Amino acid sequence: GENVEQHPSTLSVQEGDSAVIKCTYSDSASNYFPWYKQELGKRPQLIIDIRSNVGEKKDQRIAVTLNKTAKHFSLHITETQPEDSAVYFCAALNTGTASKLTFGTGTRLQVTL
Amino acid sequence: DTGVSQDPRHKITKRGQNVTFRCDPISEHNRLYWYRQTLGQGPEFLTYFQNEAQLEKSRLLSDRFSAERPKGSFSTLEIQRTEQGDSAMYLCASSLGSGIFNEQFFGPGTRLTVL
């Protein structure tokens, strides 16, 4: 089955700096890669996703890149703000054969003033 | 509220008791998923339904766990003879599940504590 590794497990940045979180996956057939943000005590919420036919996607301060050959994808947050502080999870899915998301172990991002 | 809802939000039970959780997905979504999340970990897949059919179950889902979605709308997850290791957040998610509509929308979760 799919295995997703995520690092770092914790990340502290100063407000205004950039943050990068990296994930690798094992199943070359995975073709959908969402990123979820989970604030303390709240539900995971999708912040951006990318499909395997695209190498990069951007939405305001958030961008995701995908390298299919190396089987890794990354989340980039620019101009970080205190409200970006949360746990971020990457996930992978093969939309053709399975519907279950396989999640990484999460990155706790803290944005300090 | 048109999002995924779960009930109860918190459940405290004694070891050996049975518990049942309910999930109401977004109304037009035909796919429904159950995940379990323990502290410091990402959600782990338990099972999923397309309409009323349970199409996949994880090996994490022991014989003590059963899930149903009788009319293809809400779903229930029952845990029999609870153990302390069952303590976790149980998350439900739903999706349209067709074509490019893969986004899974999560509910707020049911936090289970087994004493």
Report on this model:
- The complex is a heterodimer of chains A (113) and B (115).
- By secondary structure, chain A is mostly beta strands.
- Helices cover 0% and strands 54% of the residues of chain A.
- Chain A contains no helices and 11 strands.
- In chain A, strands 2, 4, 5, 9, 10 and 11 form a 6-stranded mixed beta sheet that branches.
- In chain A, a hairpin with a 2-residue loop joins strand 6 and strand 7 (62-67).
- Chain B is mainly β and 115 residues long.
- Chain B has strands at 5-7, 10-13, 19-24, 31-37, 44-50, 53-57, 65-68, 75-79, 88-95, 105-106, 110-114.
- In chain B, strands 2, 4, 5, 6, 9, 10 and 11 form a 7-stranded mixed beta sheet that branches. In chain B, strands 1-3-8-7 form a 4-stranded antiparallel beta sheet, with no helix packed on it.
- Chain B has no helices and 11 strands.
- Chains A and B meet through strand 4, strand 5 and strand 10 of A and strand 4, strand 5 and strand 10 of B.
